Amino acid sequence: MTDLSGERRRGRSSRLQVALILFLNAVFALFVLYIVSRGGLVQTQAIEYKDFISIVLTALAVIIAALTVFVAVAAIWGFTALREEARATAERVATSTASGTAERLATKIAREVAESVAARTVLEGKPAETTPNEAAEIVESLDQSETPNGNE
Fold first, then answer.
1. What are phi and psi of 129, to 5 degrees?
2. Is there a contact between 135 and 122 (Cβ–Cβ < 8 Å)?
3. Per-residue pLDDT of the chain (152 residues; tens, 9 = 90+)
4. Whose CA is closest to 113, among 105, 124, 101?
5. Domain coordinates of the chain in residue numbers?
């Protein structure tokens, strides 16, 4: 099973980047056309200090607004990536924990069933020759021989 959502997201982000670049180029082209239509950058009258400060502050506000939009897009992208990574990690940990628990539980149940079956088989097979204590010892020795170190 392949995860196409990551590829779709990358396709969307690259399309968003292309759209942003095209938009900025269009704004720059309009600015150049405006300058050319007015006769160039040379002006006949001098700009007063207060007008210059107004232009600089306006440009600064536009730059800060553009930077804010960029940071917002990066934050949304980062949050989405963080959420996907957290989901994948939680799934991986849950799967490994569940498989370990299931394996231990299955082993415990199998041992319990094997003990009762072995005891019953021993008692049913040779009732006159084997006592219940001997059957318990046989089951215990079988259990110890099945475990690698002789203990659980």
1. -100, -25
2. yes
3. 455 565 666 667 788 888 889 899 999 989 888 887 876 666 567 788 899 899 999 999 999 999 999 999 999 999 999 999 999 999 999 998 888 888 888 888 888 887 777 777 766 665 556 677 777 787 777 777 766 554 44
4. 105
5. 14-43
